[in-house]
Amino acid sequence: MVHTLLYLTISPSIYRMTLPNLLPEAQQQEQAFGVPIWIWFLLIVLVIVVAVIWTLHEESEAGKTQDEATVQAVAEPTQAVTTESAPASDVRPDNLKKVNGIGPKIEQLLKRNGIMTFAQLAETDVSRLQALLDEVEYALADPTTWPEQARNLI
Prior knowledge:
With about 150 residues, this protein is mainly α. It is built from 8 helices and 2 strands. About 60% of the residues lie in helices and about 5% in strands.
């Protein structure tokens, strides 16, 4: 019985206590527009992170566009390699991507510089291949085995 009376006496006061009433006055003032300050801080940090990511993405897109422009600028054949067996107009291009280490962009670079077939690639000096790659800054590509691989594919 005493327990029930104590509960009935205390419980209404607990229900009347709300969060603003429980916080000291100094902490209640740390709200802007009814939202705690830490939420505003978190929102500002989130906006800054999104802005940084967006900027980095835009810079990488600009870099890709610049790389493609460099490839097109270098695309003018400086030293065309031709085979003795067929004139350049009758040459049917091979799929140079079959050579390990040559992807679509490098294949495009080689074809723009007159290397259309496996025979032409096999006859091309490794130093010339490396010079073409250096002009467009493809540092990871290693052309040392490309002529040998091309000879095996002829």
